[in-house]
């Protein structure tokens, strides 16, 4: 369960693949994300695909918006997940207590203005590109693991298990 003082929210920039959006929703449910926001017109098809087998879209607020900057959750730090030279590698990244993770589309990048708006930019070191769902899973799993290292006996989303 997400604590009122610690949470992770997800922002998707015009996701291309409805199958991946369904898988993102499943990851959000597995790792306790509090909400999923998306831009663009491609998402509406996702609800027809079986990748959201746990029906997370009925339990996690999933909202279409024109601009992710308009829905920054209160107190959250916007974090772009993007392959850029100036980005921090995920293994060295300290997750904010309240995070709004922003992911680009499978067939493009996050707009430069949106990246510049983010307080943190992080990349996942790999030998190749990952799809959207895999990227979301890796970031949320990294958050989960690092919280468990801080306090292995705490609920994964409690205040004690997240860095300040």
From TrEMBL:
Show where the tRNA/rRNA methyltransferase SpoU type domain sits: 10-141
Molecular functions per Gene Ontology: RNA binding; RNA methyltransferase activity
Q: Does the keyword rRNA-binding belong to this entry?
A: no
Keywords associated with the record: Methyltransferase, S-adenosyl-L-methionine, Transferase
| Domain of life from the UniProt record | Bacteria
Nucleus among keywords: no
Do you know which SUPFAM superfamilies this protein is assigned to?
Answer: alpha/beta knot
Q: Which GO terms describe its cellular component?
A: cytosol
An annotated GO BP: tRNA nucleoside ribose methylation
CDD domains reported in the protein's UniProt record = SpoU-like (cd18098)
Can you tell me which family this protein belongs to?
Belongs to the class IV-like SAM-binding methyltransferase superfamily. RNA methyltransferase TrmH family.
Record PANTHER family: TRNA/RRNA METHYLTRANSFERASE, TRNA_RRNA METHYLTRANSFERASE SPOU TYPE DOMAIN-CONTAINING PROTEIN
Q: What is this protein called?
A: tRNA(Leu) C34 or U34 (Ribose-2'-O)-methylase TrmL
């Amino acid at each position: 369960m997400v604590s009122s003082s610690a949470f992770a929210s997800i922002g998707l920039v015009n996701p291309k693949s409805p199958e991946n959006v369904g898988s993102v929703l499943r990851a959000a449910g597995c790792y306790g994300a509090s909400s999923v926001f998306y831009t663009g017109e491609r998402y509406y098809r996702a609800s027809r695909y079986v990748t959201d087998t746990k029906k997370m879209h009925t339990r996690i607020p999933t909202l279409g918006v024109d601009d992710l900057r308009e829905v920054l959750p209160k107190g959250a730090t916007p974090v772009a997940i993007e392959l850029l030279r100036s980005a921090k590698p995920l293994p060295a990244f300290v997750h904010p207590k309240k995070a709004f993770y922003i992911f680009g589309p499978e067939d493009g990048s996050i707009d430069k203005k949106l990246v510049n708006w983010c307080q943190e930019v992080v990349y996942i070191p790999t030998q190749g590109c990952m799809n959207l769902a895999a990227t979301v899973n890796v970031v949320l799993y990294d958050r989960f693991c690092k919280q468990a290292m801080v306090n292995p006996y705490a609920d994964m989303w409690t205040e004690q298990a997240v860095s300040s």
